[in-house]
Amino acid sequence: MVAAMQILTVDESIDLNVPVGTAYNQWTQFESFPRFATVVKDVDQIRPNLSHWVIGFGPWRHEFDAEIVDQLPDSLVAWRSLDRRFNQRGEVVFRPSDSGSDSTTVSVRLQIEPRGLVGLVSQVPGLARRVVHSELCHFKEFIESVGQEGGAWRGVIRNGHVHPSEPEPPRSRVPRWPVG
Amino acid sequence: MKKAPKEERNEQLKTTAPKQWAAGVPAVTHALEYSLDETSPLRVGVTLLNINQVNGIDCPGCAWADPSPGHRQLNEYCENGAKHINDEATSRRVTADFFRRHSVSDLDKQSDLGLNQQGRLTAPMVKRPDSDYYEPISWDDALGLLADELKGLDSPDEAVFYTSGRVSNEGAFLLQLFARAFGTNNLPDCSNMCHESSGYALSETLGTGKGTVSLEDLHHADLIFLVGQNPGSNHPRQLSALEEAKDNGAHIIAVNPLPEAGLLRFKNPQNVRGVIGRGVQIADQFLQIRSGGDLALFQGLNRFLLEAEDARPGMVLDQDFIGANTSGFDEFARHARTISWEDILTATGLPMEEIERVRDRVLASRRVIVCWAMGVTQQRHGVATVREIVNFLMLRGNLGKSGAGACPVRGHSNVQGDRTMGIWERMPDTFLDALQHEFGFEPPRTHGLDAVNAIRAMRDGRIKVFLGAAGNFVRAAPDSDVTEDAIRQCRLTVQISTKLNRSHTVCGQTALILPALGRTERDIQATGEQFITVENSMSEVHTSQGRLEPASRTLLSEVAILCRLARRTLDGKADIPWDQFEADYGIIRDRISKVIAGFHDFNRRVVRPGGIRLPNPVNEGVYPNRVGKALFTCNAWEMSEAPEGHLVLQTLRSHDQWNTIPYTDNDRYRGIHGSRRVVLVSPGDIEGLGLTEGQRVDLVSVWDGGVERRAGDFQVVAYPTPAGCAAAYYPETNVLLPLDSVAVGSNQPTAKGIVVRLEPAGVPAG
After folding, report:
1. What is the 3-state secondary structure (H, E, C) of B432-497?
2. ipTM over 0.90
3. Confidence class of residue A2 from pLDDT cuts 50, 70 and 90?
4. Which one of B25, B459, B531, B539 has the fewest beta carbons within 10 angstroms of its own beta carbon?
5. CATH superfamily placement of domain A8-165
């Protein structure tokens, strides 16, 4: 049965009544996802291209590391999980919506392999789509109500490598002398 | 109080087949056996249940990172960590009466093992110039004696302040602050002898002196190299990370002269397959490389990668990464193509097919990590080898992305943090400026002495006072006879210590023992109970808080000793609140946060579960070296070949040993029992050199200068070493390592590349 399952692809979009920059900047604040997302319980951003996620329903929890593979300000964030039991990858694209310059269309594409418990549960017809749609609605409600982003990371990530937005970002200011 | 053994055991050497796997149930039983022999079941329970836990005691055994909070085992330690922590928690005591009964000369005849077995030091002691005995001295008099000696020097540069990796961040910050306020940068440390080559090369090429990976990277790598390291004995918790990586599909290539058990298979005693199953295979490919051949291996791999790119342009190298982030590629590539395969095969001792198999694994892997330790750094071309590893990583973009990077595996628990805190003889002006701004004194700008240069200066009579903050400098240092003579030339030597060791018996004309609290013990000061902080090998800074009652009521913490010494010595020079520092370590951390970048809001952040992860600039896309880009380098080398009739000797630890301190005379993974005076030689070399197994030989090292260095009466043990390479235990063989035999650039002693000949014992060469 499992072998017959295909990679599940979910495409969902939503229009937000905030500018692209606001939507994108808020999205880069991964550690604040639990403020609006229902299934995201905790996020630890280890560095710009690596974060640790705890997701769950009710008492059940699942943890995984995620790598950002590509990121372009006001445009897209593409990631992949680093978990052999729950292999998923996705990207979120930001673009000005057709309805006006102060609004944004956010499109999420999520691909889930039918591996492990989470991967198999996600194959329940319509479940993954409903979760993604619901979380996008939560994001819309959150960012539209607060009106402005709570932070921003404006660097670029290409093929997993970080290209900072300034020559010496604050996180690079650490002791650099040789350690024996 | 437990009693130390009355006599040293004198057993016969017995050998068995080397083990093919590490840890498992025997690791648990050996750890408990040793621990319970040292102290009570209650104290063993307190130490083991607190070790490496959030808000617990940081294991002083090694610098390996802890899993993130919530992912730690109830028993988050290894056999050697358990032994080490209970070696400190021991119920044995060294009292004033002990020193009345044993002269310094008598103690000096005891083995390192025997000295350590005496237990914890309990009171300050002094040996006067006209005496062969340590006698009790009050703390006030001891610190007064030291302060007066320091104040009487013609120059502050006549003093040396050595730091070992047990010292906390707070202690290290205060020691360097005191030394600089006193007026010297003479701040050698144990890392001068361990990973100096790594820090030098990484700083030069990447602009950061630290490794770039975290445990998460190891867990998700496709391919992991373990080069010149023995995780089974020296950082066993690394095996748990490697086990997880393998479960996630990683392949591992081990590169080492000896087929160490921990490189082959790991039986994790915390899971079923480790207890009753076969455990997990660690190395998918084991390269039994000649000692010192690592540079040639990585140059060969780099040449292979360049040729693979020639065959499939745009498919092998990460041109995007190389173009955007690096400098010097063309020159490097030209040089790499000129290295001859014949030289590579000779230097490595490996067949071409083995290196081709490695190449194929590299080409099949998107994420590669290279871990390395002293097999790489303690070589004449240690710096060049680390540079070449950086070249290798950069070619396929294996820096700055998840699951990839450079991982120097450091040994002593806070060796990295001590350097972060400014324990370095050549700190940059930016740091010294910050000290000046914060504390209102002008720090000395002239560079100070590292370990090797400190020994030279003591030997030449230029140093009058040596202070060792933890550690066992006399045994950790190279060229034992030279080091011992150098130390004995000092007017005053002072050791801040927890246990008796050789650095107390080989001492200056006057010697002080200042007994300190251990990591396991409660540290109560005027404002209440204190914790200290440490930084592990993966740049995570976290707290450590002792739980045991101190070994003696008269012990002082390292921080307290340094604060009291500073008050007595500096007489109010500089605006430094030593009283407040001693009373409240949080005030020290507040000042650290003002001096050292990345430590903002230190007190608040460090108490969060897991503490602070210091970012690495490379992972932020920043290469803060002189050109602002990661540097490709061209690394020339000379063939490290021993002349006819000689072998290249590497010194190493036994499994039952922690740094300079053996816990027993056994090394069960290597099948050596009952004696440490053994030299491991391949069967072919034993025959070729006309030796026999079990024969007693002297090891004689070959070096310029006409001084013969001899380690007498070792037994030959047939062992699967590469042809031309031998191994023997340190510190017994440090006597063979010439002081001037150092890595180019880093001045690190070359303990893995000593050319020796084996002479029948007691028969000098004629």
Report:
1. HHHHHHHHCCCCCCCCCCCHHHHHHHHHCCCCCEEEEECCCHHHHCCCHHHHHHHHHCCCEEEEEE
2. yes
3. very low
4. B25
5. START domain (3.30.530.20)
